[in-house]
Structure of Phenolic acid decarboxylase:
Amino acid sequence: MAYKDLQDFIKHLDEKGMLKRVKTEVDSDLEITEITDRVSKKYGPALLFENVKGSKYPVLINAMGTYERMSMSLGVEKLDDIGNDIEEFIDMSNYLGLMKKIKSLPRLTRMATVFPIKLPTKGACQEVIEHDPDLSTLPILKCWPGDGGRFITLPLVMTKDPETGIQNTGMYRLQVYDKNSTGMHWHLHKDGREIYEKYKALGGKMPVSVALGCDPAITYSATAPLPKSIDEMMFAGFLRKSPVKLVKSITNDIYVPADAEFVIEGYVDVNEELKLEGPFGDHTGYYSLADYYPVFHVTCITHKKNAVYPATVVGKPPMEDCYMGKATERIFLPLLKMQYPEIIDFNFPLEGVFHNCVIVSIKKRYPGHAKKIMNSLWGIGQMMYTKMIIVVDENVSPQDISTVAWKVFNNIDAKRDVVISEGPLDALDHASDLPHYGHRMGIDATKKWPSEGHSREWPDDIEMSEDIKDLVSRRWAEYDIE
Protein backbone atom coordinates (compact mmCIF):
# COMPACT_ATOMS: atom_id res chain seq x y z
CA MET A 1 0.00 0.00 0.00
CA ALA A 2 1.31 3.45 -0.93
CA TYR A 3 0.52 6.33 1.37
CA LYS A 4 0.00 9.60 -0.47
CA ASP A 5 2.16 11.42 2.05
CA LEU A 6 3.09 11.53 5.72
CA GLN A 7 -0.28 12.94 6.74
CA ASP A 8 -2.03 10.04 5.01
CA PHE A 9 0.09 7.69 7.12
CA ILE A 10 -0.83 9.67 10.25
CA LYS A 11 -4.51 9.26 9.35
CA HIS A 12 -4.12 5.47 9.07
CA LEU A 13 -2.22 5.31 12.39
CA ASP A 14 -5.03 7.26 14.01
CA GLU A 15 -7.74 5.01 12.57
CA LYS A 16 -5.97 1.91 13.91
CA GLY A 17 -5.52 3.37 17.39
CA MET A 18 -1.73 3.52 17.01
CA LEU A 19 -1.40 7.28 17.44
CA LYS A 20 -1.61 9.43 20.55
CA ARG A 21 -2.31 13.14 20.04
CA VAL A 22 -0.72 15.27 22.76
CA LYS A 23 -2.51 18.60 23.10
CA THR A 24 -0.61 19.88 26.17
CA GLU A 25 2.09 22.42 25.32
CA VAL A 26 5.51 20.75 25.22
CA ASP A 27 9.04 22.05 24.69
CA SER A 28 11.22 20.79 21.83
CA ASP A 29 14.19 21.37 24.16
CA LEU A 30 14.58 17.98 25.94
CA GLU A 31 10.93 17.56 27.02
CA ILE A 32 9.75 15.83 23.83
CA THR A 33 12.73 13.46 24.04
CA GLU A 34 11.98 12.46 27.64
CA ILE A 35 8.34 11.76 26.79
CA THR A 36 9.27 9.82 23.65
CA ASP A 37 11.97 7.79 25.40
CA ARG A 38 9.52 6.63 28.08
CA VAL A 39 6.94 5.68 25.44
CA SER A 40 9.55 3.86 23.29
CA LYS A 41 10.74 1.76 26.21
CA LYS A 42 7.15 0.63 26.78
CA TYR A 43 6.63 -0.15 23.05
CA GLY A 44 3.99 2.57 23.05
CA PRO A 45 2.18 4.48 20.28
CA ALA A 46 3.25 7.02 17.71
CA LEU A 47 3.08 10.54 19.13
CA LEU A 48 1.76 13.70 17.53
CA PHE A 49 2.61 16.76 19.63
CA GLU A 50 0.07 19.34 18.46
CA ASN A 51 1.17 22.25 20.65
CA VAL A 52 4.94 22.77 20.55
CA LYS A 53 6.30 25.81 22.35
CA GLY A 54 7.53 28.52 19.98
CA SER A 55 6.38 26.84 16.74
CA LYS A 56 3.15 26.56 14.81
CA TYR A 57 4.03 23.12 13.46
CA PRO A 58 3.07 19.84 15.17
CA VAL A 59 5.77 17.19 15.69
CA LEU A 60 5.31 13.53 14.70
CA ILE A 61 7.67 11.11 16.43
CA ASN A 62 7.97 7.36 17.11
CA ALA A 63 5.81 6.74 14.02
CA MET A 64 7.71 3.55 13.11
CA GLY A 65 8.56 2.61 16.68
CA THR A 66 7.25 -0.99 16.81
CA TYR A 67 7.46 -4.00 14.50
CA GLU A 68 3.77 -3.58 13.69
CA ARG A 69 4.06 0.10 12.77
CA MET A 70 7.29 -0.45 10.85
CA SER A 71 5.56 -3.14 8.77
CA MET A 72 2.51 -0.94 8.33
CA SER A 73 4.68 1.95 7.18
CA LEU A 74 5.97 -0.21 4.33
CA GLY A 75 2.52 -1.57 3.46
CA VAL A 76 3.00 -5.19 4.58
CA GLU A 77 1.75 -7.51 7.33
CA LYS A 78 5.29 -8.39 8.37
CA LEU A 79 8.74 -7.26 7.23
CA ASP A 80 9.64 -10.69 5.84
CA ASP A 81 6.94 -10.19 3.19
CA ILE A 82 9.15 -7.63 1.42
CA GLY A 83 12.13 -9.96 1.51
CA ASN A 84 9.96 -12.73 0.06
CA ASP A 85 8.85 -10.40 -2.75
CA ILE A 86 12.47 -9.61 -3.58
CA GLU A 87 13.40 -13.29 -3.42
CA GLU A 88 10.63 -14.19 -5.89
CA PHE A 89 11.58 -11.32 -8.14
CA ILE A 90 15.27 -12.29 -8.41
CA ASP A 91 14.61 -16.05 -8.68
CA MET A 92 15.23 -16.67 -12.38
CA SER A 93 13.45 -20.03 -12.26
CA ASN A 94 10.19 -18.06 -12.04
CA TYR A 95 10.73 -16.81 -15.59
CA LEU A 96 11.63 -20.07 -17.34
CA GLY A 97 8.99 -21.82 -19.44
CA LEU A 98 5.96 -20.33 -21.18
CA MET A 99 3.47 -20.73 -18.32
CA LYS A 100 5.92 -19.35 -15.77
CA LYS A 101 6.60 -16.38 -18.04
CA ILE A 102 2.88 -15.66 -18.24
CA LYS A 103 2.47 -16.00 -14.48
CA SER A 104 5.44 -13.69 -13.94
CA LEU A 105 3.89 -10.80 -15.86
CA PRO A 106 2.35 -9.18 -12.74
CA ARG A 107 5.75 -9.39 -11.09
CA LEU A 108 7.44 -7.75 -14.06
CA THR A 109 4.70 -5.12 -14.27
CA ARG A 110 5.70 -4.04 -10.77
CA MET A 111 9.00 -2.89 -12.23
CA ALA A 112 7.13 0.00 -13.83
CA THR A 113 6.46 1.37 -10.35
CA VAL A 114 10.12 1.84 -9.49
CA PHE A 115 10.80 4.72 -11.86
CA PRO A 116 10.08 8.13 -10.30
CA ILE A 117 7.83 10.57 -12.12
CA LYS A 118 9.12 14.12 -12.52
CA LEU A 119 6.21 16.54 -12.43
CA PRO A 120 6.38 19.68 -14.61
CA THR A 121 4.58 21.78 -11.99
CA LYS A 122 5.21 22.67 -8.36
CA GLY A 123 4.39 20.10 -5.70
CA ALA A 124 2.44 20.21 -2.46
CA CYS A 125 5.80 20.65 -0.72
CA GLN A 126 6.03 24.07 -2.39
CA GLU A 127 2.67 25.55 -1.37
CA VAL A 128 4.63 28.05 0.74
CA ILE A 129 8.01 29.37 -0.42
CA GLU A 130 10.26 31.23 2.02
CA HIS A 131 13.22 32.94 0.35
CA ASP A 132 14.27 34.46 3.69
CA PRO A 133 14.54 31.14 5.56
CA ASP A 134 14.57 30.90 9.33
CA LEU A 135 15.18 27.46 10.83
CA SER A 136 14.14 28.72 14.26
CA THR A 137 10.50 28.61 13.12
CA LEU A 138 10.70 24.81 12.95
CA PRO A 139 10.25 22.73 16.15
CA ILE A 140 13.74 21.23 15.84
CA LEU A 141 14.65 19.07 18.82
CA LYS A 142 17.43 19.33 21.30
CA CYS A 143 17.36 15.68 22.27
CA TRP A 144 19.81 15.17 25.15
CA PRO A 145 21.41 17.51 27.73
CA GLY A 146 24.95 17.09 26.37
CA ASP A 147 24.03 17.67 22.71
CA GLY A 148 25.88 20.45 20.90
CA GLY A 149 22.55 22.07 19.98
CA ARG A 150 19.33 21.33 18.16
CA PHE A 151 19.43 18.61 15.50
CA ILE A 152 17.24 17.74 12.54
CA THR A 153 17.08 14.00 13.09
CA LEU A 154 15.01 12.59 10.22
CA PRO A 155 16.29 14.44 7.11
CA LEU A 156 16.43 13.07 3.57
CA VAL A 157 19.60 14.74 2.31
CA MET A 158 19.52 14.81 -1.49
CA THR A 159 22.59 15.49 -3.63
CA LYS A 160 23.61 14.94 -7.23
CA ASP A 161 26.84 13.31 -8.44
CA PRO A 162 28.59 15.93 -10.60
CA GLU A 163 30.08 13.23 -12.85
CA THR A 164 27.10 10.94 -13.46
CA GLY A 165 24.18 13.24 -12.69
CA ILE A 166 22.67 10.47 -10.51
CA GLN A 167 20.91 11.69 -7.38
CA ASN A 168 21.66 10.23 -3.98
CA THR A 169 19.49 10.34 -0.88
CA GLY A 170 20.95 9.67 2.56
CA MET A 171 20.03 10.36 6.14
CA TYR A 172 22.61 12.53 7.87
CA ARG A 173 21.85 14.51 11.00
CA LEU A 174 21.92 18.30 10.75
CA GLN A 175 22.98 20.40 13.75
CA VAL A 176 21.45 23.87 13.63
CA TYR A 177 24.09 26.61 13.97
CA ASP A 178 21.86 29.62 13.35
CA LYS A 179 18.71 30.56 11.45
CA ASN A 180 20.12 29.59 8.04
CA SER A 181 23.02 27.17 8.51
CA THR A 182 23.57 23.67 9.87
CA GLY A 183 26.28 21.08 10.07
CA MET A 184 26.29 18.35 7.41
CA HIS A 185 27.22 15.11 9.12
CA TRP A 186 28.78 13.26 6.20
CA HIS A 187 30.78 10.34 7.64
CA LEU A 188 34.00 9.30 5.95
CA HIS A 189 32.40 6.14 4.50
CA LYS A 190 29.06 7.62 3.35
CA ASP A 191 27.95 8.21 -0.25
CA GLY A 192 27.20 11.86 0.53
CA ARG A 193 30.80 12.34 1.62
CA GLU A 194 32.08 10.76 -1.61
CA ILE A 195 29.95 13.13 -3.70
CA TYR A 196 31.18 16.05 -1.57
CA GLU A 197 34.79 15.07 -2.34
CA LYS A 198 33.99 15.12 -6.07
CA TYR A 199 32.61 18.65 -5.78
CA LYS A 200 35.64 19.62 -3.72
CA ALA A 201 37.88 18.65 -6.61
CA LEU A 202 35.81 20.91 -8.87
CA GLY A 203 35.56 23.82 -6.41
CA GLY A 204 32.57 26.09 -5.83
CA LYS A 205 29.24 25.34 -4.25
CA MET A 206 27.56 21.95 -3.97
CA PRO A 207 23.74 22.07 -4.24
CA VAL A 208 21.80 20.22 -1.54
CA SER A 209 18.09 19.80 -0.87
CA VAL A 210 16.73 18.24 2.32
CA ALA A 211 13.22 16.73 2.37
CA LEU A 212 11.41 16.33 5.69
CA GLY A 213 8.27 14.27 6.16
CA CYS A 214 7.49 11.88 3.30
CA ASP A 215 5.57 8.68 2.84
CA PRO A 216 7.48 6.46 5.33
CA ALA A 217 8.61 4.13 2.51
CA ILE A 218 10.52 7.09 1.04
CA THR A 219 11.96 8.01 4.44
CA TYR A 220 13.06 4.42 5.08
CA SER A 221 14.69 4.19 1.65
CA ALA A 222 17.09 6.98 2.60
CA THR A 223 18.54 4.64 5.25
CA ALA A 224 18.71 1.49 3.08
CA PRO A 225 22.20 0.13 2.24
CA LEU A 226 21.72 0.25 -1.53
CA PRO A 227 24.40 -0.10 -4.21
CA LYS A 228 25.53 3.28 -5.57
CA SER A 229 23.86 2.57 -8.92
CA ILE A 230 20.37 2.28 -7.41
CA ASP A 231 18.47 5.51 -6.80
CA GLU A 232 16.76 5.51 -3.39
CA MET A 233 13.62 6.92 -5.00
CA MET A 234 13.49 3.87 -7.29
CA PHE A 235 13.74 1.58 -4.29
CA ALA A 236 10.99 3.56 -2.55
CA GLY A 237 8.79 3.06 -5.63
CA PHE A 238 9.37 -0.70 -5.42
CA LEU A 239 8.46 -0.75 -1.71
CA ARG A 240 5.32 1.34 -2.05
CA LYS A 241 4.27 -0.30 -5.36
CA SER A 242 3.73 3.17 -6.78
CA PRO A 243 6.14 5.63 -8.41
CA VAL A 244 7.53 8.45 -6.30
CA LYS A 245 6.46 11.83 -7.66
CA LEU A 246 9.27 14.37 -7.78
CA VAL A 247 9.46 18.10 -8.40
CA LYS A 248 12.41 20.35 -9.08
CA SER A 249 13.68 22.37 -6.14
CA ILE A 250 13.04 26.10 -6.32
CA THR A 251 16.70 27.21 -6.15
CA ASN A 252 18.66 24.26 -7.54
CA ASP A 253 18.35 21.35 -9.98
CA ILE A 254 17.75 18.63 -7.40
CA TYR A 255 14.40 16.83 -7.58
CA VAL A 256 12.58 16.25 -4.29
CA PRO A 257 9.48 14.23 -3.27
CA ALA A 258 6.49 16.33 -4.33
CA ASP A 259 4.44 15.50 -1.23
CA ALA A 260 7.12 16.16 1.40
CA GLU A 261 6.04 18.28 4.35
CA PHE A 262 9.12 20.54 4.17
CA VAL A 263 12.05 21.02 1.80
CA ILE A 264 15.16 22.88 2.92
CA GLU A 265 17.27 24.03 -0.03
CA GLY A 266 20.80 25.33 -0.03
CA TYR A 267 24.42 24.54 -0.69
CA VAL A 268 27.71 23.44 0.82
CA ASP A 269 30.67 25.65 -0.08
CA VAL A 270 33.43 23.10 -0.61
CA ASN A 271 36.10 25.80 -0.18
CA GLU A 272 34.80 26.76 3.26
CA GLU A 273 36.53 25.58 6.41
CA LEU A 274 34.86 22.72 8.27
CA LYS A 275 33.00 23.57 11.47
CA LEU A 276 32.76 21.76 14.79
CA GLU A 277 29.63 19.60 14.97
CA GLY A 278 28.36 17.69 18.00
CA PRO A 279 28.41 16.12 20.53
CA PHE A 280 25.22 14.18 19.83
CA GLY A 281 23.42 11.59 21.95
CA ASP A 282 23.51 8.67 19.53
CA HIS A 283 21.92 5.27 18.99
CA THR A 284 24.82 3.59 20.81
CA GLY A 285 23.44 5.09 24.01
CA TYR A 286 26.50 7.33 24.30
CA TYR A 287 27.34 10.80 23.03
CA SER A 288 29.23 10.69 19.74
CA LEU A 289 32.18 13.07 19.98
CA ALA A 290 32.31 16.48 18.38
CA ASP A 291 34.21 16.65 15.10
CA TYR A 292 34.58 18.91 12.08
CA TYR A 293 32.11 18.68 9.20
CA PRO A 294 30.97 20.77 6.21
CA VAL A 295 28.46 23.60 6.67
CA PHE A 296 25.08 23.54 4.92
CA HIS A 297 23.86 27.03 4.03
CA VAL A 298 20.07 27.32 3.74
CA THR A 299 18.80 29.59 0.95
CA CYS A 300 15.12 28.63 0.81
CA ILE A 301 12.52 26.66 2.78
CA THR A 302 9.33 25.40 1.15
CA HIS A 303 6.49 23.56 2.85
CA LYS A 304 2.83 22.66 2.85
CA LYS A 305 0.38 25.17 4.29
CA ASN A 306 -0.42 22.83 7.19
CA ALA A 307 2.86 20.96 7.47
CA VAL A 308 3.80 18.39 10.11
CA TYR A 309 7.42 18.26 11.30
CA PRO A 310 8.85 14.71 11.53
CA ALA A 311 11.49 13.77 14.07
CA THR A 312 13.06 10.81 15.75
CA VAL A 313 15.11 10.34 18.91
CA VAL A 314 18.02 7.95 19.16
CA GLY A 315 19.57 6.53 22.31
CA LYS A 316 19.71 3.33 24.33
CA PRO A 317 17.53 0.73 22.57
CA PRO A 318 14.76 0.04 22.01
CA MET A 319 14.12 3.24 20.05
CA GLU A 320 12.39 3.96 16.75
CA ASP A 321 15.58 3.63 14.69
CA CYS A 322 15.97 0.01 15.89
CA TYR A 323 12.92 -1.02 13.89
CA MET A 324 14.23 0.71 10.78
CA GLY A 325 17.36 -1.40 11.23
CA LYS A 326 15.25 -4.56 11.57
CA ALA A 327 13.49 -3.66 8.32
CA THR A 328 16.87 -3.59 6.61
CA GLU A 329 17.72 -6.98 8.12
CA ARG A 330 14.61 -8.68 6.77
CA ILE A 331 14.45 -6.87 3.41
CA PHE A 332 18.04 -7.52 2.40
CA LEU A 333 18.37 -11.13 3.65
CA PRO A 334 17.35 -12.60 0.23
CA LEU A 335 20.04 -10.57 -1.55
CA LEU A 336 22.62 -11.80 0.94
CA LYS A 337 21.47 -15.40 0.49
CA MET A 338 21.75 -15.00 -3.27
CA GLN A 339 25.46 -14.21 -2.84
CA TYR A 340 25.96 -16.75 -0.05
CA PRO A 341 23.38 -19.56 -0.39
CA GLU A 342 24.77 -21.32 2.67
CA ILE A 343 23.25 -18.59 4.86
CA ILE A 344 19.94 -19.66 6.41
CA ASP A 345 19.03 -16.57 8.44
CA PHE A 346 20.61 -13.68 10.32
CA ASN A 347 19.75 -11.31 13.12
CA PHE A 348 20.90 -7.82 14.09
CA PRO A 349 19.93 -7.77 17.80
CA LEU A 350 18.44 -4.44 18.90
CA GLU A 351 21.13 -4.23 21.57
CA GLY A 352 23.79 -4.26 18.86
CA VAL A 353 22.39 -1.02 17.38
CA PHE A 354 22.90 -1.90 13.71
CA HIS A 355 26.62 -2.52 13.35
CA ASN A 356 27.84 -3.98 16.62
CA CYS A 357 26.54 -7.55 16.41
CA VAL A 358 25.28 -9.93 13.73
CA ILE A 359 24.21 -13.52 14.39
CA VAL A 360 24.12 -15.73 11.29
CA SER A 361 23.13 -19.37 10.81
CA ILE A 362 24.67 -21.40 7.98
CA LYS A 363 24.44 -24.80 6.36
CA LYS A 364 28.01 -25.82 7.07
CA ARG A 365 29.60 -27.81 4.27
CA TYR A 366 33.39 -27.74 4.78
CA PRO A 367 36.07 -27.01 7.39
CA GLY A 368 36.41 -23.33 8.21
CA HIS A 369 33.08 -22.49 6.59
CA ALA A 370 32.07 -20.24 9.50
CA LYS A 371 35.27 -18.22 9.18
CA LYS A 372 34.70 -17.84 5.45
CA ILE A 373 31.28 -16.32 6.17
CA MET A 374 32.72 -13.93 8.77
CA ASN A 375 35.27 -12.57 6.33
CA SER A 376 32.72 -12.40 3.51
CA LEU A 377 30.32 -10.33 5.63
CA TRP A 378 33.09 -7.96 6.70
CA GLY A 379 33.68 -7.33 3.00
CA ILE A 380 30.10 -6.23 2.19
CA GLY A 381 29.24 -2.52 2.30
CA GLN A 382 28.26 -1.24 5.73
CA MET A 383 28.78 -4.68 7.27
CA MET A 384 32.47 -3.80 7.36
CA TYR A 385 31.59 -1.95 10.60
CA THR A 386 30.27 -5.08 12.35
CA LYS A 387 32.18 -5.47 15.60
CA MET A 388 31.00 -9.00 16.36
CA ILE A 389 29.82 -11.79 14.06
CA ILE A 390 28.50 -14.98 15.66
CA VAL A 391 28.04 -18.02 13.39
CA VAL A 392 25.81 -20.94 14.40
CA ASP A 393 24.61 -24.12 12.70
CA GLU A 394 21.48 -24.25 10.55
CA ASN A 395 19.39 -25.86 13.30
CA VAL A 396 19.86 -22.80 15.55
CA SER A 397 17.64 -19.78 14.93
CA PRO A 398 19.58 -16.48 15.12
CA GLN A 399 16.36 -14.93 16.46
CA ASP A 400 16.51 -17.23 19.53
CA ILE A 401 19.05 -15.29 21.58
CA SER A 402 18.91 -17.75 24.50
CA THR A 403 19.84 -20.73 22.32
CA VAL A 404 22.53 -18.70 20.53
CA ALA A 405 24.05 -17.76 23.90
CA TRP A 406 23.91 -21.41 24.96
CA LYS A 407 25.84 -22.46 21.86
CA VAL A 408 28.41 -19.67 22.23
CA PHE A 409 28.96 -20.39 25.92
CA ASN A 410 29.34 -24.13 25.39
CA ASN A 411 30.61 -24.73 21.86
CA ILE A 412 33.76 -22.65 21.56
CA ASP A 413 37.43 -23.14 22.24
CA ALA A 414 38.70 -19.57 22.43
CA LYS A 415 42.01 -20.09 20.61
CA ARG A 416 40.47 -22.09 17.78
CA ASP A 417 37.07 -20.42 17.36
CA VAL A 418 37.59 -16.71 18.01
CA VAL A 419 38.80 -14.57 15.12
CA ILE A 420 40.18 -11.05 15.61
CA SER A 421 40.11 -9.00 12.42
CA GLU A 422 41.45 -5.49 11.80
CA GLY A 423 39.48 -3.15 9.58
CA PRO A 424 37.24 -0.09 9.20
CA LEU A 425 34.80 0.80 11.96
CA ASP A 426 31.84 3.13 12.16
CA ALA A 427 32.65 6.79 12.81
CA LEU A 428 30.36 6.53 15.85
CA ASP A 429 32.43 3.77 17.46
CA HIS A 430 33.82 5.08 20.75
CA ALA A 431 35.65 1.95 21.92
CA SER A 432 38.41 1.73 19.29
CA ASP A 433 41.80 3.36 19.91
CA LEU A 434 41.71 5.09 16.52
CA PRO A 435 38.81 6.81 14.73
CA HIS A 436 37.30 4.79 11.86
CA TYR A 437 39.67 1.84 12.41
CA GLY A 438 39.98 -0.97 14.91
CA HIS A 439 39.41 -4.62 15.69
CA ARG A 440 36.38 -6.85 15.07
CA MET A 441 35.62 -10.26 16.53
CA GLY A 442 34.16 -13.37 14.95
CA ILE A 443 32.91 -16.33 17.01
CA ASP A 444 32.47 -19.73 15.40
CA ALA A 445 29.83 -21.45 17.56
CA THR A 446 29.16 -24.26 15.07
CA LYS A 447 29.67 -27.93 15.80
CA LYS A 448 33.36 -28.76 15.16
CA TRP A 449 34.53 -31.49 12.84
CA PRO A 450 37.68 -33.66 13.04
CA SER A 451 38.85 -31.92 9.86
CA GLU A 452 38.82 -28.65 11.83
CA GLY A 453 41.23 -30.07 14.40
CA HIS A 454 38.70 -31.34 16.93
CA SER A 455 40.16 -34.71 17.87
CA ARG A 456 37.49 -35.83 20.31
CA GLU A 457 33.99 -37.00 19.46
CA TRP A 458 31.50 -34.14 19.49
CA PRO A 459 28.62 -34.97 21.85
CA ASP A 460 25.03 -35.28 20.66
CA ASP A 461 22.40 -32.79 21.77
CA ILE A 462 20.06 -34.06 24.48
CA GLU A 463 16.73 -34.88 22.81
CA MET A 464 13.73 -36.84 24.06
CA SER A 465 12.62 -39.76 21.87
CA GLU A 466 9.82 -38.94 19.41
CA ASP A 467 7.45 -41.63 20.72
CA ILE A 468 7.57 -40.21 24.26
CA LYS A 469 7.11 -36.65 22.98
CA ASP A 470 4.07 -37.80 21.00
CA LEU A 471 2.67 -39.69 23.99
CA VAL A 472 3.00 -36.68 26.30
CA SER A 473 1.46 -34.38 23.70
CA ARG A 474 -1.59 -36.66 23.40
CA ARG A 475 -2.03 -36.98 27.14
CA TRP A 476 -1.11 -33.40 28.12
CA ALA A 477 -4.63 -32.49 29.22
CA GLU A 478 -4.73 -35.48 31.56
CA TYR A 479 -1.79 -34.15 33.59
CA ASP A 480 -3.81 -31.07 34.52
CA ILE A 481 -0.63 -28.99 34.85
CA GLU A 482 -1.89 -25.83 33.17
About this structure: The chain has two domains: 6-310, 340-452. The chain has 14 helices and 25 strands. The mean pLDDT is 91. The domain at 340-452 is CATH 3.40.1670.10 (UbiD C-terminal domain-like).
